[in-house]
Amino acid sequence: MGDCIFCKILRGEIPSRKVYEDELAYAFHDINPVAPIHILIIPKKHLAGIHEMEEEDRELIGHLFWVARRIAEDLGHSPSQDPTRGYRLVLNSGSLAGQTVFHLHLHLLAGREMSWPPG
Ligand code: AMP
Ligand code: ZN
């Protein structure tokens, strides 16, 4: 997608602070973090959001969650390592839900206590 900001990041046309990359996914630090750790995990395939996910994308979406788990563990924030740790995964779909970039992305938030319900 030519004018998609995250596709531009994938093509290297916009700089990003890379955390992880494989053949299907890319992860980088959010430019405007709302937690001490705020990482975005995106598929290399352009999908506007989970609302545009097709049946064939099931493995890809599952992979994004796998990558999130690995990153959280690499950074030492997984409750599987330490029950006092934890992280939140957020996926906004549509403007009403707070989505501002229409290339599917999973937010990985960690490093502070989270409240519920989210705003
Ligand atoms: P959402 O509101 O769920 O669509 O999240 C979009 C996220 O992308 C926000 O947290 C922004 O801070 C982040 N963002 C926007 N542009 C960039 C960029 N160039 N590099 C890193 N993060 C970005
Ligand atoms: Zn895109």
UniProtKB/TrEMBL annotation:
Residues 5-119 form the HIT domain. A motif (Histidine triad motif) lies at residues 103-107. GO terms for molecular function: catalytic activity. It holds the Pfam family HIT. It comes from the Bacteria. The active site is at H105. This is Histidine triad nucleotide-binding protein. It comes from Thermosulfurimonas dismutans. The lineage of its organism: Bacteria, Pseudomonadati, Thermodesulfobacteriota, Thermodesulfobacteria, Thermodesulfobacteriales.
